[in-house]
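Worked Example 4.2. Consider the chain below.
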Amino acid sequence: MNRIVALLKMSIRILLRNKGFLFFLFVTPILSTMILSVKSGYSIVGDEGSGVKEIIELSSCEERAIYESDTSRFVVKVYDGAQTELSEYILNKLAATGMYSVCRCDVSHMTDEEVEEQAKKDAFDDRTGTILYLKEDFDKAVSEGKYEAAVLLFTTSDDERYELFVEDLKNSLATVNQVVGIANGDTAQALTLLNDMDNSIPEKNIVNVGGKGQRAFTDKQFSQKQNMGYAFAVITLGFIFCGVCVAHTVIEEQNNKVYTRVMLSQVTKWEYLFSKFIITIMMAVGQSIVTGVSMLFIKDIDFGMSPASFLFIIFCLGIIFGTISFVMGVLIGDVMSSNFAAFMVWNFSALLSGLYFPMDDTTTSLKAMSAIMPHRWFMDAVEMVFVGDSKAYSMVICVTAAYLIITLCLGCVGLKLKENEA
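Applying the procedure from the previous section yields the following structure tokens:
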């Protein structure tokens, strides 16, 4: 035990003199925490986590919706000639689906002919999925079921989501028509009934709906998951290169005959390697502590989970990638080659595990490759924590143990082969 402690002290002194190691130890955790504080571009209103979008108000119909909208959604420019509570309700329902970016302008002062001319102009000057015109007699026409007299749609693109929008619009109009009928034409009572219907179905996270193994998230959780993926990518870069720095100490000690002198003492080879493995664990602890401290100074961080859960996941991720890069560097035995290999491991792992973009709709072979990457399992753990699945932590522990066993076994085999070659 004393020999291992002596080796740890020697390695720590070497690493603390390495500016690259200190950079990745302190800077990358802070950067990853800053990423988590970045707010999504989505507008959230109502209760926290409800995922309801605001209607984007345009100052005039001349203003371009494409500049104000979320272009990842189907952009709908609305000419609101009704300006009533029912039209407001319909637009809010469409925006609440999360699939449409609804941009509204007031055209109550314009005639139908002027609106049509403006629509023709916007079809060329503005990039929208469709233009929806709510006519002046919208309330009366909807209550009577005369939808053609209530709304007018201008198609401005061949986006396939247009059909889905039309279907959602029809359903919303039909619902309003039925409720107005129940309220005997009383618009105020109809709105009360509609709001009561919406509030009676609270939005919850549901596991395994809409497809095999899929989870449903609110838009806020989806944004948190995206930020979490970017944060994992940044901090993993720190884990990888800190592990490489540990491997560099082994390579330099071999080149400078320090390793030979250590082996001539009573220290065994496995004690030497075990001391380096402990360093990688201490490195993961150190970066987790830096991350935790940075949380205290960076405001408006929204994890979607408790800070303790996030730090636990970060710590386990650090042990895996620190060990992988350490073992890989020792086996390669060259500083520059191990740096290049570490960068490639980080790059491909982040790409194939879905940190930057989802892998759900990719080919079967890419999905199989994605399942090999550690990041993929940790992102699954994040999703499980989001939906309140208590099995997430046991899964993280099992995944960490599995990757460590595989990595260390491969490292032992590789070292044995190198010894035989020597």
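Strands lie at 44-45, 52-53, 56-57, 74-80, 100-106, 130-134, 151-155. The CA atoms of residues 68 and 337 lie 47 Å apart. Compare this with Example 4.1 before moving on.
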